Amino acid sequence: MGHVHGPEVPPASASGRYVKRLAAAFCVAGAFMIFEFTVAFLTGSLALLSDAAHMLTDVFGVGMALIAILVAQRTVPTATRTFGMYRSEVFAALFNALLLFGVAGYVLVEAIRRFVDPPEVAALPVMLAAGAGIVANLVSFFLLRSGAKESLNLKGAYLEVLADLIASVGVLVSGVITLLTGWRYADPLMGVGIAVFVLPRAFSLARRSLRILFQHAPERIDVDGLAGRLDKLAGVIDVHDLHVWTLTSGMEVASAHLTVDADADQADVLERARHLLSVEYHIQHTTLQVEPPESAENCGTPSW
């Protein structure tokens, strides 16, 4: 039998390259969150309050993302934590999604109450606060945009900032309508619109996080097709116990047993299988076991 292992888990995930940008986004979001909450309570604006609450999830979410990256960078694999703490980023992304669900639910309940007796809202301060929120979110948006393509953790923070940017625009629009027409329903209606906008994005983030935590195969990889490609390698007569999963963003792992002809060159089979997984499927960490036919028959099936 033989084994081949891909490169060791890298010292930092893709999101680790964006720590400074993440820290800057955290500071910007935190400052404007305090400002928006203050103006929301002074003016009685539900739309601005919902935007400030969503900004709170930005602050908490970006903060969690930053902590998760720092933990992942400073925790090396050990004998008991063989993959380190890299999955902390995924837990942070899932928690961000749950926060979004909570904020959206609160806004919907509060909006229903206000439809019965819509309060008067001071439109001009709301508009000024919304304009400041737009500027803050644009800064955070550009800080996180490139990193969101590589990391689920940063993707969560980026989606929150993007949603809040759109929400701030909505608050500005509701403020203009209130100022020009005096229509009191504009503010709670916009609050509902913001909540409805947030929900599908929270669902998508939660779904992606849970796929990783449940160790599902990456969506981009056809596992049956991968098994077929391995099975067609010269000397391979069977592929079994094939597993493909994601450790965290940018870190995908695979393991498999390859049954080979008795006269096959095991080292050559291992090298070609490793090359296939690395180059064509972009899976850098692999554990492959090569078995002659007589050993494969005794490979057994796990009791679980």
UniProtKB/TrEMBL annotation:
TM region(s), chain numbering: 22-46, 52-71, 91-109, 121-144, 156-183, 189-206
Domain of life of the native organism: Bacteria
Subcellular localization, as worded in the UniProt entry: Membrane
InterPro entries, sorted: Cation_efflux, Cation_efflux_CTD, Cation_efflux_CTD_sf, Cation_efflux_TM, Cation_efflux_TMD_sf, CDF/SLC30A
Keywords assigned by UniProt, alphabetized: Ion transport, Membrane, Transmembrane, Transmembrane helix, Transport
Membrane topology: Multi-pass membrane protein
tRNA processing found in the keyword field: no
GO cellular component: plasma membrane
Chief site of localization: membrane
Residue ranges constituting the Cation efflux protein cytoplasmic domain according to the UniProt record: 220-292
A single GO molecular function term of this UniProt record: zinc ion transmembrane transporter activity
Occurrences of domain Cation efflux protein transmembrane (ranges): 23-213
Family statement: Belongs to the cation diffusion facilitator (CDF) transporter (TC 2.A.4) family. SLC30A subfamily.
Entry protein name: Cobalt-zinc-cadmium efflux system protein
Species whose genome carries this gene: Haloechinothrix alba
Lineage: Bacteria, Bacillati, Actinomycetota, Actinomycetes, Pseudonocardiales
